[in-house]
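Hey L., structure's done. Input below.
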Amino acid sequence: MTTGQELVAALQSIRSSAEQGFDVVDVPSAPGFKIGRDVDNAVVLLTPADTNPEPPTQLWRLSLDPSITLAVRFADGTVEQGSFGLMRLRLGEAEYLEPFLHVVANLVEVIGPDPAPGEVSIAMRRLVHLFDASPNPRGSVLGLWGELFVLCASRDLPATIDAWHASIDDAFDFAANGSRLEVKTTTKSERRHIFSLHQLLPVVGATVTIASIMTTETAAGTSVDDLIKRVKSLLAADPVRQMRVHEVVAETLGAEWARHVSHRFDEEQAAESLAFFSASDVPRVGEVPPQVTGVSFTADCSGVKVETSPHGLAALISSQDA
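Output:
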């Protein structure tokens, strides 16, 4: 299996010749793939060529071509010419390198050594979604950390990943047939969380549970990136779901997601404080006129009855496994 660490090491072994073209090395664990740099020091990944390619894509930081004929140069001076898929990242800042290579490692596994027609193009399109994400974050770093913490605590991670920001109901962090789970994380000293009214109203045919987490931002804590890597390690044989993790991170934090994954929070405090509540028990505002929408408010959950045997998705989560 190809890993981000392997690609980092391979890239560090390259000595650019400062000539036009691409200086590359083979990716040891992935026949048909090469990684390297071009004359402008941009990072490049070469994949098997797509036999049914989509048009090339050019973004500010990323350029992609599913099928292009070019020559590559190895450290011993030999040159190989052929057809490849080309991914090229102009970093600008070193902080993007490792996150990019972890994503690329997933793509290598998703594409595989013998991709069917169109598969390289599809994989490249997924990369576009990561590095051309919406500039407006959907959520916060703290909220994402709490969701990743819950994923790490799941006894059925594939099922929980599939429910994570699923299209079945985007009002909740996790949604599956018959179950909704909303994760609320706070760094305040009291168990107060911001809710939308919709999150606390009954959902026909489904249980709605709130997972409440209290933590503290600390340099000695567990980072967002640490949790991403842990979730991926638990999905080691499942590159498609690993890729889903990266996609949700980018959707949540926006186009500059790589800048924010170093934030750290106290994981031990989170595990000790994790509590589940039925949404129906959380204090909320009363009936509102139908002309009023988008109602949100802060609720003090410190006196809410804790569910000791939660149902649905919440039943998969245990603080003892976090």
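Residues 4-131 form one domain. The longest helix spans residues 97-111.

-- N.
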